[in-house]
Amino acid sequence: METATLDAKADALAARGLPGLWYVAAKSVQLRSDEVLSITALGRKLVLWRDGAGRAQCVEDFCPHRGAPLSRGEVIDGHIACRYHGVALDGTGTVVRVPAMPNCPLEGKHAIQGYETFEARDAVFIYIPTAAGEAAPPIDLPYEFTDPNWEGFLCSGLWDCNYQLAAENTADPMHGIYLHADSFTLAYGEREDLVRIDPADRGFIITRVAQTDQNFDWCHVTCEGSTNFIRLDIPYPAAGGPGGPFRVLGFMTPIDEHSTRIFFWRNRQVSGIAREAWRFLFRAFFEARHWEVLEQDREMLEDVPYEARRREMLYQHDAGVVRLRRIWRERAKQLLLAEQKDAAE
């Protein structure tokens, strides 16, 4: 495959969302024991539910009998049962029961794609494989998820923009002092600066050179493990209550090429009575302000056409954006070449 053709195909694949990764599918509270949840991720229509043991299950939203959406069905004995004719499937996509016909030959057949799940910090993750039957690798989670000294709140939202725009926004610390200049914490700092990029665990850190501990000064982009997420700190003044900086952990799940579901954990390193004070202050005062900042990002990005990158004039501050795009393209090229090799064999 010619280089230019491969690059174009890789960019198109990356724009849809890269398989071979764990993605956040939903908040845990959205998955009730007696209900089903319909979502779309990377253009795939999926359905989630909880089995008899309370574990999250996920399969493609398609009944193998007649193609009816399983998301219109119900949970029976821990399985997802189609509303059309009652065909029930387990979390692997195997037909376990056809109530309308005893001893039906469909029973026991692996009929549709099942997706591995993992639950952590109030969220359900799913693994999107590169090919059917591929086993999921261990999930790479932020260390803040397992450290008891970090307290966080999860928020999610629907943004009508490509997930790459949302990720690139976080890899651009210089936008904070401009777009969020009237916010509680991001109104301070130098409006003129340079940025640098340094290698970091499973990715890179982009940092403003001339200032620290004033604004959105750095971002850790994790893009080389089994999950992609961002980590950044926003310094809080004394009025912000106990704990260190306000730390954001962000995950983006592509819905399709035009929309994404964002999941942000808002965290602080607090324990004991300080933890309770922080929880109260966040819910009572700071949560609304955090949403105001996210809304500024959403409104801006939804008005930026994805095709704008064809006419961009980038400069030094966009080093993180360029690095991210290069990583996406290379990962997509590897997937395409592996697919081409498998087809040839």
Summarize the structure.
This protein is of the alpha+beta class.
Verbal overview:
Strand 5 and strand 6 form a beta hairpin. It is globular, with a radius of gyration of 22 Å. The strands form 4 sheets. The protein has a 7-stranded antiparallel sheet with strand order 12-18-17-16-15-14-13. The protein has a 4-stranded antiparallel sheet with strand order 2-3-4-9, with no helix packed on it. The protein has 2 domains: 97 residues, Rieske [2Fe-2S] iron-sulphur domain (Rieske Iron-sulfur Protein), CATH 2.102.10.10; 187 residues, Alpha-Beta Complex (Naphthalene 1,2-dioxygenase Alpha Subunit, Chain A, domain 1). The chain has 345 residues and is of the alpha+beta class. The chain is built from 5 helices and 18 strands. The model has no long low-confidence stretch (mean pLDDT 93).
Q: SSE layout and pairings?
A:
Elements: H1 3-16, E1 21-27, E2 37-41, E3 44-50, E4 56-60, E5 74-76, E6 79-81, E7 88-89, E8 95-97, E9 114-115, E10 117-120, E11 123-128, E12 150-159, H2 163-170, H3 176-179, E13 195-200, E14 203-208, E15 218-222, E16 229-234, E17 246-256, E18 259-269, H4 272-302, H5 319-344
Antiparallel strand pairs: 1-11, 2-3, 3-4, 4-9, 5-6, 6-7, 7-8, 10-11, 12-18, 13-14, 14-15, 15-16, 16-17, 17-18
Helix pairs in contact: 1-5, 2-5
